[in-house]
Amino acid sequence: MAYSAKGRTKDFPVFDCDSHIYEPPEVWDKYIPERHRELAKTHFYRDADRLVLVRNSRISFRSPNEWKYPAETWHPGLTKHEIGNTPPGTREWDEKIGRNASARDPHVRLKDMDASGIDQVMIFPSTFVYLPLVENAEAAHLCARAYNDWVYDYCGADRKRMYPAAVLPLQDVDRAIDELRRVAKRGFKSALVRPIIALDRYPTFPEFDPLWKEFEELGMVLGMHTFPSRGEPLSPGLEERMGADRKRLFADEDNVLVYSPGQFVANIMQAMGSKQAGDAAYGFIAEAMTWTGVVLMTGWLEKFPRLKVAILESNSSWLPLVLEKAEGYLDLYRHTNENIGDPKEVFYKNCFIAFEGDEEITFRLWDLYEDIGLWSSDMPHLDAADVWEAIDNMNKWKVPRQAQEKMLGGNARRLYGIEPELVVTQAPDEYTPVTMSRFAS
User: Fold this and answer.
1) DSSP for 48-99?
2) Alpha-carbon dihedral 142, 143, 149, 155, rounded to 10 degrees
3) What angle do CA 333, 335, 339 make, to 5 degrees?
4) Is 387 exposed, middle or buried (0-12, 13-18, 19+ CB in 10 A)?
5) In this structure, are residues 308 and 222 in contact, taking their beta carbons and an 8 Å threshold?
6) How buried is residue 138: exposed, middle or buried, by Cβ count under 10 Å (0-12/13-18/19+)?
């Protein structure tokens, strides 16, 4: 589909709260000191050009003739229908879709932002959302530092428009605190944590409390960012039903790597023979809903009254139901005498939540999100969309102009403490995507 936003205009700044890169091999080969490189790459490494992934000394491979390159697919003008109907590994895919170079090249990113109506953006990783699964704490720390240094340089192409989110080596709380302090000094506004059990620990467990207190002290935003989980069956019986050729995040694994509520839907669907992406469609939502329910019904957020949290890449339409259920059942069990605050008050005080441009329920209930909603494009992941679509859908459901300006940028800038930059007032007349070959050179 050709670029069709020509003629679109806006007069307020848009902040994209969730947009991704796809880590190139140079993160490891340039940003990790040579004396530590072998250790780091033995435990965690990805070559996105040759489709090689290493995790805890185990190696996975993919074929460029079968891989959909979901983390670097979308560019302005593409639709979900077009992506879904174009088979990967074909000449048609190469010519129509390809690998968006914005995942590597910040100057291409800026052009894509202009075409998408985006003035400013918070940049997130792709591969590094798997960092919590690395068992070696030193290797995780080396890789986290390398990624943070690389993404800092990436955003250096325009520091008023692009802002990096850090990753942390949660394998060791002291190392994570050290890295948080280091990136805060460099001007990072946020660091990411994934709401899963990894290495037998969940982010709300008390051993992590010193880290969240450090977030408070530094004024850093805690980004709770979800990601797909699938393949690890969690029971011998389910493993047998899924079969040896089940879809996995990593090859040749015979142990449970991660416990995510997102696994359940994907694994049941696989056991039924489905090829659909249940892990992406519902797994993200399941992770975020679970974390939100846990923190609201345990009083966890009250322990950190100055902590600011962004719930990311999980949609937002489910939020009213989770708040309602937490409130209702806390009332039913007041006799336990646990000192837990009102879920709605606590959430609206501490938390913000990301939404995407096609969430009709969120727009119909806009008043619930006016002060906490954060628009996200998710570009260049395959399910991304531009802000023009979000504006059209907001107008369709009569979201007031003031609320649109907050949800499409004002809330994010307030959360992160970032001054507005209005760069894109009109979509470009022409846009040509810059893509990369699916074959390694």
Assistant:
1) TTTTEEEETTEEEE--TTT---GGG---TT--HHHHHTS-TTSHHHHHHT-E
2) -170
3) 85
4) buried
5) yes
6) middle
Structurally, what CATH architecture does the domain formed by 15-228+277-430 represent? Alpha-Beta Barrel (3.20)
Q: Which residues of 35-70 are buried (b: 16+ CB within 10 A; e: fewer)?
A: ebbeebbebbbbbbbebebbbeeeebeeebeeebbb
CA distance 219 to 186: 13
Q: At what angle do helices 319-332 and 284-298 cross, to 10 degrees?
A: 30
Supply angle C-alpha 75, 356, 372, rounded to 5.
135
How are beta strands 44-47 and 15-20 bridged, if at all?
unpaired
Domains of the chain by residue range:
15-228+277-430
Residue with tokens 């519902």: 282
Asked if residues 126 and 21 have their Cβ atoms less than 8 Å apart, the reply is yes
Q: Please name which of 131, 108, 86 lies closest in space to residue 379, comparing C-alpha atoms.
A: 108
Distance from C-alpha of 89 to C-alpha of 402, rounded to nearest angstrom? 45
Rg of the chain over CA atoms, in angstroms? 21
Name 193's bridge partners: 224
Q: Give, for all 441 residues of the chain, the pLDDT tens digit.
A: 589 999 999 999 999 999 999 999 999 999 999 999 999 999 999 999 999 999 899 888 889 999 999 999 999 999 999 999 999 999 999 999 999 999 999 999 999 999 999 999 999 999 998 899 899 999 999 999 999 999 999 999 999 999 999 999 999 999 999 999 999 999 999 999 999 988 889 999 999 999 999 999 999 999 999 877 765 656 666 667 767 666 655 444 444 455 788 888 888 887 888 888 887 888 899 999 999 999 999 999 999 999 999 999 999 999 999 999 999 999 999 999 898 999 999 999 999 999 999 999 999 999 999 999 999 999 999 999 999 999 999 999 999 999 999 999 999 999 999 999 999 999 999 999 999 999 986
How far is C-alpha 323 from the chain's CA centre? 22
Distance, CA of 176 to CA of 140 (rounded, Å): 10
Bridge partners, 163 (sequence order): 122
Whole-number Å distance between alpha carbons of 228 and 125? 14
DSSP 269: H
